[in-house]
């Protein structure tokens, strides 16, 4: 089959009047590849004899005047056909280009029957860890030049270069992997499998390269040998210089305080401002002193965990050959037994089979097996849930020695720097009480650890899953009493699941939950142990949360205690804000009985200015739709300044509504959850894929922007906690009991803390500038607003202006 297919490829790109089947071609670009080399190019404009829309003009840069001088398609059809008739037709989204060109050629008397290959699907399979596969994004990621995107010859040339890289990548894969890919390749669009077939035909049957190992019919990348680590200098400035960085006075001051903390026999709390380089400020002095002892670093989110591994940890590994390792929950890792089982199963879903191909290629590349590497798995999340590791491993498994979770666990024990996240630190240390013994623990962004600790102390369960399980138990019930109890339990659960509102009927809910608890206790079945755990009498606070699923949650009445869970040899709590008020610190929330507190004074920022829009109306006087439209209007006016624009929301509902308003205005933007994961959005925004990013959640405190030299940041609303949140209610009760004022001593300082954390997102380098706009006039009209403004004025230049004046001043400030 391969010998009969041409080794000549025509890489084609068309620009057209639209994306529909009846669009007219306005530009053709063709690149001919033969024997792996670009041999010829062809480019021409086409006169469509119709006016272009403003969208097409803006997108392509092509004008009506330019096309008025161009030939009709009929005049060039023969040349195009003769050029490509003996080639394999290649395009980025081949369906559009091939169908449109074939249609135009048909009406001129030429029937195009060439095989078709799509570079989009091939890139998805053979570059499995990329976040996006648009032509511009692929070109940038793979180092392919694309200066005039959306002009046909430039796009065709870039596609040709990517196609050559794909051919080379496929040829480098082990033959066994190619054979497995070939069994699934019919799931690729059109004749895209041709590249796999050709590579397989040309790959000799030789022993597997030492870079790989064959384990039970799966080819895996061998773990590389580690270089011998180098001892860091005791001189902080020397270490910074070796890393190729410039010393900073406040970073040095902070590092000195970290070093001094080693001689304290108490936990060290160090408060230091954002943007001074805290991460290396604590890593370098600790790693230089703890060469024979493991340093564990916990950050709030997996996004920050990946960010640290990709930046600071990679730098330390490259320069000092330090063994740095990132460890997460078992469910983050691929279980090889489960993947092989799925390969042996015949599936008809084309997307699922393409994911199988993608994972086969990825196994030849990954050293960790971390499924977070696969950025587009959300399109078939159920398949990846099937492949996730469950934390258990049979020693008789053929994959025991190479199991990713096992190897990650071993690597975590040997590494000098172990990076994890707050949630997994709690999970791991609760299961393994020796985990922190004789180790130094740094909890970064420590103000956020309190909520992680409280979340960890809760129990939860998806009720619909329990209800489905009850159906199976009822079918198997053998004795009358068990069946009656299961029927009662099933009835009560269904009443809870289908209850329209519990906020107005809490007494009725409590009664149903009490009956459910009684039935579960009498049944005493292993299959219902998770429901029994949630309804354990020690977890007396029980409530329902309804997001995408109905979740039953429970918690103890008292706040969770930090010392009861974590006992490191040496503990550091690091944050930009540890002192919530003159009376309360984060350590008090964590119930640390004794600690040493230190701080690095914060000076007023010259590169960040804040504006409060005093023209923005009182939120209580606005309908939801009017508020959303007003936010969208402000975004449009700010976007005209042509700087990256980062907009933070406190509500997902408002976030999505504003996104819809911008879509109506055809304003390109990235939107959290709609446009991908938090980590992917951060990278796409920093790489300039869109000038506007709408976000919430982790972006308030957990995502930094290092790459933006100039940025505008908008706070749509002050980030107060929801007063109905169970944690907030619990804290309020605890504070009243201790004689504190819940609003003044917790709610307001936590909001202010979150606000300051958000303001620091765009100030991660000394040469960055960011303009910060707050659209919540409660700062100007509420009694607490004056207190918050005074705190802001201590750190920033703060101005209260009307919207037109703000635009003018921001433009001048960011020059």
Rg, Å, rounded:
30 Å
Mean pLDDT: 88
Architecture (CATH level 2) name of the domain at 608-813: 3-Layer(aba) Sandwich
Number of E-state strands: 24
Estimate the strand proportion. Answer: 15-25%
Which spans of ≥5 residues are poorly predicted at pLDDT below 50? none
CATH superfamily of the domain at 608-813: P-loop containing nucleotide triphosphate hydrolases
| CATH fold-level assignment of the domain at 608-813 | Rossmann fold
| Main beta sheet strand tally, sense and closure | 7 strands, parallel
What's the CATH C level of the domain at 608-813? Alpha Beta
CA-CA gap between termini? 62 Å
State the helicity in percent bands.
40-55%
Domain Helicase ATP-binding: 237-509, 259-464
Pfam families: DEAD (PF00270), Helicase_C_2 (PF13307), RNase_T (PF00929)
GO molecular function, one term: DNA-directed DNA polymerase activity
Keywords: ATP-binding, DNA replication, DNA-directed DNA polymerase, Exonuclease, Helicase, Hydrolase, Nuclease, Nucleotide-binding, Nucleotidyltransferase, Transferase
